[in-house]
Amino acid sequence: MSPAANRLGAATSPYLRQHADNPVHWREWSADALADAAARDVPILLSIGYAACHWCHVMAHESFADDEVAVIVNAGFVAIKVDREERPDLDAVYMTATVAMTGQGGWPMTCFLTPDGRPFFCGTYYPRDGFLQLLEAVGDAWRTRRGEVEEASDQIAGELRSMAATLPGGGSVPDADLCDRAVAHVLADEDIRHGGFGNAPKFPPSALLEALLRHHERTGATDSLATVERACAAMARGGIYDQLAGGFARYSVDASWVVPHFEKMLYDNALLLRVYAHVARRTGDPLARRVTRETAEFLIRDLGAGGTFTSSLDADADGVEGLTYAWTPGQLREALGDDDGRWAADVFGVTEEGTFERGSSVLRLAADPADAERFGRVRARLARVRAWRPQPARDDKVVTAWNGFAITALADASVALADPGLLDAALTCARAVVDLHVVDGRLRRASLGGRVGDSAAILEDHAALATGLLTLYQLTADEDWLTVATDLLDVAVAHFADPDVAGRWYDTADDAESLVLRPADPVDGATPSGAALITEALHLAAHLTPGPRADLYAASATASLAAATPLLAKVPRSAGHWLAVAEAAVRGPIQIAVACDGFDSELLAAARVLAPGGAVVVGGPVGSAELLIGRDRVGGHDAAYVCRGRTCDLPVTTPRDLAAALVARV
């Protein structure tokens, strides 16, 4: 094989680079790759995955590293590898096709396309022998039944366009009654015994928990807060949480949060960090405070790179899933000595039978031990011993949206824990992402090692980064963050909003690469939908921005929420972030302007802690921000002005009076 046959060596995706030594002649998705398929008159083999995906590694080892497989692929196909995290637009299009054809999706995704990108056969993981049979069957169909293949691809492409998930537009803006009914629907689905929602596999419900917490803050309802506290405690004490070093795995393979799928994703940890920070801020719960701090430390220590945050840690180490994290009683005694080893086994639920593979157990923590000093010493010793084990590989790709989540979460955690160092980490990340990922006035999706990739940013990138920057503006009063955030929102409104249907958003820009369909999915997935995220950002900006821009943002956010009403009414569990935004909107959203001489104001600090999720908080001298125009200190004291929508209360001058002004109202 010539050095140029496989063209992934210069990719900005670590996942693609993992396949650079395959005998398969992989290429990145490009117009040239599609043109080559047309010139050779062969179908495209499209394989989509991501670096932390266990079964992606399995299929790569079994099939893509196999010479017999490579001979067949190279002779009869143009092989294209895609990192779903770098090209979520392609992933969305072909996942829709895969689910439509097979009834389920997943990664690795294996699709066969015509040279112009129309899918005609899709699946997921195939073992080597099954994959060889599939290659032969697809190749034979292409050569001998070409008409049938073309007809099928036309039909599938037509069905995809008709199935494209879009908001209908129009409708009425969600009100308190709709939010109450949506919350009741969500609460009815809670797994009260184990915490969270649904059965195995069980995923952290970050967006739903944020929505339920905001519902509690709006109404004072104790059942929604109890659901949040049960889920947060269950996850924090389960195997899905790293009991030694902090950070959450992607999901639990069981309903009890015992055994995780061990990959750790930046987006999960950033979204969960925000939830735990808000629980800590609202309740002061010691467990929530500890998990907030440890998760922030995990982000900075294990995913940090040059101020930004990388994408993930693999589930595997040396090809073995969970090798880094699982323990046997004997390993605990070897690491700690007999006495501490037996004590640790009891504390962390490590048994001779094991909860995982090969008689090993994933560490859990049913309750905090009474001996805190011993617990800290044992944890530290086990963490040091674990560091000598094989470690999971890291995907060093920097994704704009996920770093936006991290900026917001770290800023919120800095308030919850009164830790300015976490705000510094958020500021450093924001500067690095903006400096590198904004190119010629347009945002890019990802970078690697300081080199920005060619992939255009999607809606969630603009929205998540804008929200993070607007959060920083509120905490720093630095106008630069407001300027960059509103520039991003202007691009989003101009290029992602449907000009024909109010409130509908596309996930790709109108000047992005044209695909089989233009993705527009308003439903939350592993991360909140881009449409819900942009609505949150617009709501914030509408109260921070002066002039006609504010009216434009407010109108756009209102139309978006109105278009989301059917989702909240019918499938609220799949619209958690919409519900969170709606809860904030129904309550005002609340704006708190604190007239003060400086950021050391006790009243301003109290406002940030007391403000409910989705509120806007600014502080400074009179006229220093849009919300502070005409609002000054009162009688020589700092003064807080609380507004709901366009209705404002009389100013208050003490934290106690501010807390009373923010008391929950149904």
From TrEMBL:
<dbReference type="InterPro" id="IPR004879">
    <property type="entry name" value="Ssp411-like_TRX"/>
</dbReference>
<dbReference type="InterPro" id="IPR008928">
    <property type="entry name" value="6-hairpin_glycosidase_sf"/>
</dbReference>
<protein>
    <submittedName>
        <fullName>Membrane protein</fullName>
    </submittedName>
</protein>
<dbReference type="InterPro" id="IPR036249">
    <property type="entry name" value="Thioredoxin-like_sf"/>
</dbReference>
<dbReference type="GO" id="GO:0005975">
    <property type="term" value="P:carbohydrate metabolic process"/>
</dbReference>
<dbReference type="InterPro" id="IPR024705">
    <property type="entry name" value="Ssp411"/>
</dbReference>
<feature type="domain" description="Spermatogenesis-associated protein 20-like TRX">
    <location>
        <begin position="6"/>
        <end position="160"/>
    </location>
</feature>
<dbReference type="Pfam" id="PF03190">
    <property type="entry name" value="Thioredox_DsbH"/>
</dbReference>
